[in-house]
Amino acid sequence: MFRVDRIANSIQPLAARTFSELGFRERAHLQEWIAKYPSCLGEELLIIQKEFAGFSDTQERLDLLALDKEGRLVIIENKLDDTGRDVTWQALKYASYCASLKTESICSIYQEHLQKAGQAGVAAELIADFLEVGDLAEVTLNRGITQRIMLIAANFRKEVTSTVIWLMNFRLQVQCFKVTPWSMGDELFLNVEQIIPVRDTQEFVIGLADKAQDEVHTTSADARRHSVRREFWTELLKAMQGRSELYRNISPGTATWIGAGSGVRGIGFNFSAAGRYGRAELYIDRGEQEENKYVFDWLHDRRETIQAAFGGQLDWERLDHRRASRVKAEIETDIYDTTEWPRMIEFMADAMVRMERAMRDPLRTIAPELKARQSGTALVAEVDEPDS
Question: How far apart are alpha carbons 335 and 232 in whole angstroms?
């Protein structure tokens, strides 16, 4: 690694160091660095436990346990200057121990971690936010044999890298990261580099393993959920045909939501249904969080007029922790209980018709302003004063 000297138009080498000579320790330092900034491993991860020892009949502890954005458990094993010979076997043991963890157990593990760290929040809700789902019941954490392993060290022995490459042929998701401390004067730097699989070839390597195994299957639970959702959306769209033109060209799908445009880019009228709710909503996601919150606040300032046109109260969710915002009408129900469908469909269809009617004029008013903001030009027009 080099430092660029702009004035001299040259480069100066930085000194590669070892963790031991710098006095850094595995648990006290490297583990804490990764726990505080897990994205140094090249992706968004949610650390749910440190020094996890919740295994039956053994006192072994894995360094870090995390969830990725797909809800898969990630076992992270840290070594300092050398991996040793047994790190692969050690990580595989931990992965096998974790394979039996269910969603409730994972939430409990994370809740314990939050309490130890003195952090507020409900584990299930924070995990749902991380996965960007409305309800954690809609996903299955730690599905099947999807556990991942990340090995981290300054130097990897050949017996370790050889074993990792062989394991990848069986679609086991193992990654190796080389960490190197560097110094220049009193300043210290840490370089984190994924060496297996090489990041530029990762998709190709995974594709070869997928082809070799040819084991991509949809679970029966997923198949049933998809079938139920498609049937429900079909019935709901039928109910909308005689009430509104909004969903005239929309086809039923298998996701937890279906949407129709409002005529304003990034603002849609969505239906959403899951195991705990059914709702009609105005969903605001124009790509930029700041603009989404501006639109939400603009509408919220006019909520009395909007709710009067709707004929009832609406739930206003700014969702500051997420990019999007929404305004919704919702009931507690269960899409997978077909006896609930008549009540769900009547509520959701009626709410959507009234919501589209209530939002029509406000959206028509704000649309030119949003277009002007997008083009960077000023809008000279009379804008309605917000309701008090």
Answer: 8
